[in-house]
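This is your field. Pick holes in the following sequence-structure pair:
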Amino acid sequence: MSKKTKGNMFVCQSCGTASLRWMGRCPSCGEWDSLVEEVSGVSAGRTDREVKAVTLADAANMDFARVITGNSEFDRVLGGGLVPGSLTLLGGEPGVGKSTLLLQISNLLAEKGAKVLYVSGEESAEQIKLRSDRLGAGSRNLLVSVETGIEDIKLLVEMEKPDLLVVDSIQTMYSPEMSSAPGSIGQVRECTMAFLEIAKKKGLSTILIGHITKDGSIAGPKVLEHIVDVVLYFEGDMRQNQKLVRTVKNRFGPSNELGVFEMTSRGLQPVDNPSGLFLAERKKHVSGSVVMAAMQGTRPILVELQALVTQTSFSTARRMSAGVDPNRVTLLMAMLEKRAGIILNSCDVYMNVAGGLTLSEPALDLAVIGAVVSSYRDVPLDDKTIIFGEVGLAGEVRAVSSADARIREAFGMGFNQVIMPATNVDSMEKKEVKKLKAVDSVLDFLEAAGL
């Protein structure tokens, strides 16, 4: 039986969908018992703030100097450092290292003379002190507060006038203007808007921590990604020592940047050579193993793709992949059957990206094909060869972006041969012909790779 309260809305706590009536199941995301009543309210108008506008020409001349944190990988995912007045959201699974990373960043800035206010709604000051001792973070400019009320935090900001505000986490904050519990859609949205006002009005760099739900999205407020300036996600297997932070959105720099960290006894340390990390345990002279040069934002990283092709024992062959879109793998195998005569409908095919990295760019197509055919024919590829290129359904090999950067990374890591699209080779002004193998089609690629 539906119920309705005059003036109120029922908001789904999973996806944020609003409804005038209560329903047992959300019509948008399908979650059961997720609609919670929230009181509709209008905030009182502000009469004590100055309202003004500036011309675009004047705005272009405003101070936009970034603040370098001192952590090279964190600065990379931010696009070069913190922007004054920016609002950043850092999401990740529980225990992945969100609080550890931001406590380290806070201490680095505090040691440079910046005043940092770390607000925690989940830990006491004593608990934070224990973690800071382990990390060696004890600067006198690092202030800690355990407040959760948005009005109290505003008062703290007015009193302390920090250069950086860290909120751990946004789901524990609450606004007295909302009657719903902390962590609900309404509370999180209202608190985020309050922090946005603080950041923009005072030019205060603000970082919010957001929890990740079982489906991989920030708990409750997917709408937060539209409010904040920068969205960062921890990704990969949280049980591995290497931790990956990816930029999903950045209004001040390139998106899809990847920061690579390693968890140590002293916290999360930046990895200066990610390619070396991902290839450290690679086995040589093994069929189904291919190294490709992937672009992660503006940086090339060498990663290993692994394929295992076996005869199926089921009526329908299995297709499984980790770190690669399974639909893309299936599409490429169908192309192989049609254009190269390699029949895989009686084989199980398993794909994996070593190291827990997730790849989505078209340039991995040629490497996927190389790994699958290598495992299918049990023929190892040359250990010093790098492969990259996009493949179409007609079997043609298409050009990809940033070919020069990929080649430089490959040669810098000791590889002596690159198999790549012919179009990229033709467009390069300086090329070492002996080290580059240009291919126009899948058949040319299989011949060049010795498959």
In short: The mean pLDDT is 87. Residues 397 and 440 are 5 Å apart (CA to CA). The two ends are 65 Å apart (CA to CA). Residues 185-202 form the longest helix (18 residues).
